Amino acid sequence: MVNPRERNQRMKSLFGNVDPNALSNQPAPSPTPIEADKRRVGSAAVKSMDRAFVSIEEENRRLHDQLTSAESVVEIDAEKVIPSFVADRLDIEGDPGFATFVDGINESGQKIPILVRPLDGKPGYYQAAYGHRRLKACQILKRPVKAVVRSMSDEELIISQGIENSERLNLSFVEQGLFALSLKEKGYTRETISIALGRKPGQSITYISTMTNTVAQIPVSLIRLIGAAPSVGRPKWEKLASLVTDKSLNPRQQDALDHLTASTEWQASDTQQRFQLVLGAFDETIQALPDKSEVSLGDGFVISAVTAGTNTRISIPNKRLPGLSGWLLQRLPDLVEEFKSQQEKDSDMS
User: Which residues make Cβ contacts (< 8 Å) with residue 233, sequence separation at least 6?
Assistant: First the structure.
């Protein structure tokens, strides 16, 4: 074994002729490829950690700003809140799911607040930007509505209204069209309308014009009769608009609509089916759906009549009253004469 004194002498003999100053001026030796990779990995890890800490700090700062600037939710009298000055929904209470929606709020309470602004000139009253379904439900239930109160300009209100609707429940094509048309008639630019519909600035500006032009061609009263028709897109509404001249119905179309809305089929139809019924009645190239009527003679005995185009087919259940159909056929010539005679009397009286 080498003792400490002998080891020191050997070290001196190895480095005795080395100039310390010259040694300090020597460039550092180049790292090997493996050492270089290790250094790069270490540097990348440090940078990644730095970015992570910066990201966390930014997120904490963002959350802090949100918390310190958050608006409080208050409860206000639902009867003192009026709707937005621009309607977006065609029929809230006519929505088949609205009754279930009201029951849900009645049982579980209102989870999400609505957004309102103070109403100028009426202290204690407000105007809703969005949340009209929640507001209507609270009005029906006679309970306060939870709301965030915020001072907003008209433009800020309609933008908040449109963006909320686009994120929570998409408006149908015709609802978007009516909303956009109302804003256009109030003087808002297409850029503002586009943002209010939840679109990015400059995106689909041409589509706004197409939408408003299509909806403007159809009488609003007819649109409200049909309803939102959420599954009916632009092409079919454009087809219906093309059948209307000068934004009003011609006599034939008005007669067809009056007959249609008085039918039992119309009453039993949803908004989608009503659109198809109107389109079929207006478009002579489309065969309208048959109109079915029934005559009850008691004890479950029903005679039905189906009208399709210019023909009517009467159906008699022979098993319930055998011989009735044959008897009616024999009496038919007399009944026709009676009908003609009655028509003549009616024309003389008029």
Answer: 173
DSSP designation for 26: S
pLDDT tens digits for range 157-194: 888 887 676 555 567 889 888 888 888 888 888 878 88
297: buried, middle or exposed (CB in 10 Å: 19+, 13-18, 0-12)?
Answer: exposed
Cβ(92)–Cβ(133) below 8 Å: yes
Is 295 in a helix, a strand, or coil? Answer: strand
Candidates 281, 180, 175, 282; CA nearest to 229 is 175
- pTM for this predicted structure: 0.51
Task: List pLDDT tens digits, range 92-108.
Answer: 656 667 788 898 999 98
| Alpha-carbon separation of residue 19 from 7, 16, 26, 27, 315 (angstroms) | 21, 8, 11, 15, 123
**Which one, of 217, 162, 166, lies nearest residue 188 by Cα?**
162
Averaged pLDDT in 10-residue chunks for the chain of 350 residues? 54 52 54 54 50 50 44 89 81 69 90 90 90 90 93 87 64 85 85 75 69 90 88 91 89 90 88 91 66 72 74 81 84 85 68
Residue at token pair 């074994």? 1
Does an H or E element contain 313, and which? strand 311-315
Q: Can you name the CATH fold of 71-169? A: 3.90.1530
Q: At what angle do helices 234-242 and 205-217 cross, to 10 degrees?
A: 40
How does strand 291-296 pair with strand 302-308? antiparallel
Number of Cβ within a 10 Å radius of residue 33: 8
Which of 260, 194, 269, 274 shows the shortest CA–CA distance to 226? 274
In the numeric block, the tokens 């056929």 are attached to 329
The sign one gets for the Cα dihedral 209, 239, 169, 274 is: positive
Contact by Cβ (8 Å): 219, 248: yes
What's the CA gap between 122 and 126, in Å, rounded?
A: 8
Domain ranges for the chain: 71-169, 171-217, 225-289, 290-320
